[in-house]
Amino acid sequence: MIELRDVTVRSGDYCLEGISFQVQAGAYAVLMGRTGIGKTTLLEAICGLRRLVGGCVLLGGVDVSTWAPGDRRIGYMPQDLALFPTMTVQQHLEFALRLQRATSSVVAARVAELAGLLEIEHLLQRGVRGLSGGEAQRVALGRALAARPALLLLDEPISALDADTRRTARQMLKNLNRQTGVTVLHVTHDQEDAELLGDVCLQLERTSAGRVQVQSSGVGL
Fold first, then answer.
1. Structural contact between residues 199 and 29, judged by C-beta atoms closer than 8 angstroms
2. Are 60 and 93 in contact (CB under 8 A)?
3. Cβ-proximal residues to 174 (8 Å cutoff; 6+ apart), any chain
């Protein structure tokens, strides 16, 4: 389970203040809100890339607010994917495991498992330059999942895909959630994405007093 209690985080002159919500373990939560309201900032705060000004982030009931990003067991897929241009697809899937100093046999088994799950076995020896949008998305997703995170954060993961690829990607994301049991928090602007994917819908909204709050609905709360 992920829970935010009165989280406050700043980004320049912008401030998200008193953000609270929870999502049960294994649920697929969708986070919506207008452009610029702070969705990406909130994801970065959850995974430790932005320091909290106040409040706390709990994962599985444990306060991880002061933990380093690599200790939180969170997989993060940013909107721009942030693939490494000099690495092969296989090296992307190995990356987090190498940082953890996993044995060669563990790395090889996990790469094979992810490549099969994401249907990218034929891409393993390729560089990432020239991959299609859908292929690049699968590689970035595999890198985020490699270390078996308890929580997966997705920032507009399929917004740049064409309509046909987007439908395939939606089904893949839902299947991954069901097959792996990972809790997902997925930022999107697309109402159809929210309706087809989300067990839980979280909406960032600005109040009449100027504060941003979260409205929650769904079955995974």
1. yes
2. no
3. 28, 196, 197
Q: How far apart are CA 212 and CA 56, in angstroms?
A: 17
Q: How many residues does the structure list for the chain?
A: 221
pTM for the full predicted model: 0.90
Q: Which residues pair with 31 in a beta bridge?
A: 187, 202
- Amino acid letter for position 176: L
Return the residue matching tokens 């939606």: 170
Residue numbers of the chain with a pLDDT score lower than 70 = 208-212, 216-221
CATH architecture classification, 2-82+149-218 = 3-Layer(aba) Sandwich (3.40)
Q: Mark 36-61 as b/e (b = at least 16 C-beta within 10 Å).
A: ebbbbbbbbbbbbebebeebebebee
Closest to 7 measured CA to CA, from 37, 36, 50: 50
Over residues 64-81, the pLDDT tens digits come to 999 999 999 999 999 999
Gyration radius (Cα) of the chain, Å: 17
- Beta bridge partners of residue 184, listed in sequence order: 28, 152
User: What are the φ and ψ backbone dihedral angles of 65, each rounded to 5 degrees?
Assistant: -55, -30
Condensed to tens digits (0 to 9), the pLDDT of residues 108-125 reads 999 999 999 999 999 999
